[in-house]
Specification:
The structure is a homodimer of 300-residue chains.
Chain A lengths: L7 H22 L8 H11 L5 H12 L5 H21 L9 E2 L2 E2 L1 H4 L2 H20 L6 H15 L4 H10 L7 H26 L4 H28 L2 H4 L5 H4 L5 H5 L1 H21 L5 H11 L4
Antiparallel strand pairs in A: 1-2
Chain lengths: 300, 300
């Protein structure tokens, strides 16, 4: 880790505990793998294994910055990971990106079958809303606000809309604003909502929420640029998913529009802007600074 | 319509107004067809067109029985229809039932493409939870209870689980209890939840809720037996979907296990039991009696 903050290791030391909380919350909302129909429930759990859980960590980091207890963040952290997991299962389907490899293992439709993968994605989405609605640590007003925010981020004006635009854009050369708009929806919306959920858990002021949202938007875009860069320069073993896919699918990417070096510079500037936004939030910014560093340094 | 009740025409006369309310609520929660990405939004609306909207009518009928205003039922009625619509779009996919015809028109993946159909189903599910979370006519506690009930009914212990069992049961001969358990989940859970949502909107007593649930369970099972019967005896033009599918897919059905005549008798007895349950509810049972008659007499 770099040392942009003297307390750079503080959030780091709590990450394992947060990941354990995420695992426990996910385990509690999903029926046991032996529950009838067992093959479906086994596949649901398979789809949730692995992954870096950056979105959950963003919920915990943003919440910690605002002084929220972990209990009040568990459902939110779990819900974004469930939406993320569902989107990966469906994006990998033969009728979509048709991918065999995810998180270094066979995709759900490869490990099971296509019908099961469709149903796994469907029920992971259901569980995301269920975990918010059944939290013991949030009041009803917070639950409703979180469900609205998550639905907006993941629906046709957010993540799913971005995926639709992405598929329609194969073999087209997009402009930079078009590419940014696509990714603000496809990956950005779900990253942004982690900050919004934390703000709801904190009953934050509008100013605080806006500051957090600016952080979230910068991280979301930087994350995607970095993803495009990694797709081009990393190998499949490191990524845990098929490398070089963008080129194979003739997709516009930040490196293809800006050149590799300028894309990397743009991501760098966005991470800096995110850190500036984090420092401007009334709270203890260290978790958000750590997360910006952590994401910036990932190699997959 | 039969005249099991002297007021048998009263709910009937309000059905067009209820269907208009459903259309308005659905129209408001879905982005306009011209919204970017337009192809996706067009396909989402295509998937919601047509259909008998029996589930929405059950919400309105059960709510009317308990004295709930239509405003307090709109979101619930819309949410079950959105879940139903999403499930049809995904069930029809090539990786699932692979069907070309639905509601007398090409299925979504035929009219558009497979990727679009996956995303349409995904976002219809999202919209179902969104419409409950954004209702102006419910308090937050009711919204949360409804979202929990809908998630339970549509998830892996309900509708999606039933679909998984159904697909796993092709070419198997089920026992009658196994077949009933399958359909209690696949179609029954979403019919049952219409009664539960109405009970939540009414802040009903436990006794009332249980009475309504008994009505809902009887209707749900009767509806499915009737579906199996119609699949065997009706033609594709009348059904608006492919007839004779159960036989072609070697599925156990109520007629295949009980014989056609006994299956029809069992449905008849269940409709009678539903009417008895309706008369036992503290309220104005006529809407529920009308609905039982209406469903019993359908030919598609």
């Amino acid at each position: 880790m770099s040392s942009t903050s003297p307390k750079a290791s503080a959030f780091d030391s709590r990450v394992p505990a947060y990941l354990q909380r995420l695992e426990r919350t996910t385990d509690a909302v999903l029926p046991p793998a032996s529950t009838d129909p067992a093959r479906l429930h086994e596949a649901i759990r398979y789809a949730c294994e692995g992954g870096k859980h950056l979105r959950a960590l963003m919920v915990y980091a943003a919440g910690e910055t605002l002084g929220v207890t972990p209990e009040q963040l568990d459902a939110a952290a779990c819900s974004v990971e469930l939406i993320h997991a569902y989107s990966l299962v469906h994006d990998d389907l033969p009728g979509m990106d048709n991918d065999d490899l995810r998180r270094g293992r066979p995709t759900v439709h490869k490990a099971y079958d296509e019908a099961t993968a469709i149903l796994v994605g469907d029920t992971l989405q259901t569980s995301a809303f269920e975990v918010l609605a059944t939290s013991d640590a949030l009041d009803d007003a917070q639950k409703v606000q979180m469900i609205r925010a998550l639905a907006h981020a993941s629906g046709s004006l957010g993540m799913v809309g971005g995926q639709a635009v992405d598929m329609a854009s194969e073999n087209l050369t997009l402009t930079l604003p078009q590419l940014e708009s696509l990714h603000a929806r496809k990956t950005g919306a779900l990253i942004l909502v982690t900050c919004q959920l934390a703000a709801i858990a904190a009953n934050a002021t509008e100013a605080t929420r806006k500051g957090l949202e600016h952080y979230g938007r910068c991280i979301g875009l930087a994350f995607q640029i970095q993803d495009d860069v990694l797709d081009q320069i990393a190998d499949t073993a490191t990524l845990g998913k098929t490398a070089g896919k963008d080129l194979a699918q003739h997709k516009s990417t930040f490196p293809s529009l800006l050149g590799l070096e300028q894309a990397q510079q743009r991501a760098h500037a966005l991470f800096d802007e995110a850190r500036n936004a984090a420092r401007g939030i009334a709270g203890h910014a260290e978790p958000l600074l750590w997360l910006a560093d952590h994401i910036q340094q990932r190699d997959h």
